[in-house]
């Protein structure tokens, strides 16, 4: 999460890593485009809605992964903490659907990170 979540005391978390959140321009792009697709296709044509969301998610994935190229060492560190020391990582976000949220992409990056 780029901004610390409201209602969660900082004393309850061990680390907050905003560098792994999408940039604000990408967050705005995500919300604007997702809302536009929902407004245009969700109620009228469910099949078209699914196709448009799939295209949207493919574009978002490419853009987010591009942003994360500069965070490779941080991702590898988190992967090492999880893999080598058994640290449980909890990824938070305000997105209601984890299937189309950067959390799923980040979890995959951490899981697939090579050993250090």
Describe the protein in words.
This protein has one domain (18-112). The two termini are 25 Å apart. The radius of gyration is 16 Å and the shape is globular. The protein is 58% helix and 0% strand. The chain has helices spanning 24-42, 46-68, 72-85, 102-112. With 116 residues, it is mostly helical. The longest helix is centred in the middle third of the chain and has 23 residues, at 46-68. Helix 1 runs antiparallel to helix 2.
Whole-number mean pLDDT? 91
Going by helix content, strand content and strand pairing, the class is mainly alpha
Task: Summarize the main sheet.
Answer: none
Beta-strand residue percentage:
under 5%
Write the element-wise H/E pattern from the N-terminal end onward. HHHH
The number of domains: 1
Helix content: 55-70%
> Which overall shape is indicated by the principal axes computed on the Cα atoms?
globular
Radius of gyration: 16 Å
Contiguous helical run count: 4
Number of beta strands: 0
List keywords for this structure.
single chain, 116 residues, globular
Helices and strands in order:
Layout: H1 24-42, H2 46-68, H3 72-85, H4 102-112
Helix pairs in contact: 1-2, 3-4
């Amino acid at each position: 999460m780029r901004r610390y979540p409201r209602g969660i005391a900082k004393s309850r978390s061990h680390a907050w890593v905003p560098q792994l959140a999408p940039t604000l321009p990408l967050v705005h792009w995500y919300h604007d485009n997702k809302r536009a697709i929902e407004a245009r296709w969700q109620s009228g044509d469910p099949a078209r809605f699914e196709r448009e969301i799939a295209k949207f998610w493919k574009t978002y994935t490419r853009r987010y992964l591009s942003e994360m190229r500069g965070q490779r060492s941080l991702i590898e560190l988190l992967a090492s903490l999880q893999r080598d020391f058994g640290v449980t990582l909890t990824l938070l976000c305000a997105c209601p659907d984890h299937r189309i949220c950067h959390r799923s992409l980040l979890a995959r990056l951490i899981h697939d990170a090579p050993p250090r």
